[in-house]
Amino acid sequence: MDWLHAILLGIVQGLTEFLPVSSSAHIRLTGLVLMDGRDPGATFTAITQIGTELAVLIYFWPVIVRIIRKWFTQWGPNVPKGDPDVRMGWFVILATIPIAVAGYLLQDMIRGSLRSLWFTAFTLIFFGILLWLADRFGRKARHMENLRPIDAIWIGLAQMLALIPGVSRSGATTTMARSLGYTRTASSEFAFLIAVPAVFGAGFYELAQAIQNPGAEVFSMGQTVVATAVSFVIALFTIRQLMAWIKRHSFLPFVVWRIALGVVIIAALSFGWVEPLAGN
Prior knowledge:
This protein is mainly α and 280 residues long. The chain is 72% helix and 0% strand.
């Protein structure tokens, strides 16, 4: 059944990575339900996210290639000073530094106490409310070309919080961007761009660790690879649907889902149906 479980978790990863509902929380909870209380683990989650980020690369390929090319040739004579793609390259770097530093320094907490279901429930509800407030009352007037260095840093700090299951990478970065006055489309696009180096970095690091320590994880490497491939296919569909959705609708349905799921987790913990660190 582990192969089926890996495939189902890959589907969950692909569906939830880009929605502001926390893919890591959903992977954790799905694993507890399907696998007799076992936690799929931070390593499995990080590696399967490689598949979802490959989907981002494909969807935003022209934009990403243009940014990289301009950034590496910015000191040449053919790139004008203040080129928007060069600036965007620097903004992505600025926004990636906080999560890179925190991810390296807080590895033990990420694998341990931060995976407590009490943390997950609290962050699902709390950051869901923050997302609603930012989406409801944000100025909604600024676009990608209006991005400033200080904004990139603030959004990067928000992305750092995604190390905690339940926060949601896209949810945290979108909330921060909306609170700074950016449109839903601009907020989501920048969230996608800054996730690429962060997720690939974490995913390949965890992949290297899993290769060095085989058998330490719940799933075999083959099962994890299959789950990653499944997450890639599902993520391609999810990105297109999300980008179409936010042009016409708010984030309210995702807020309601986060709060409802958080309440269910609190109830399950309170009645003793599940342990806070179940599966660890």
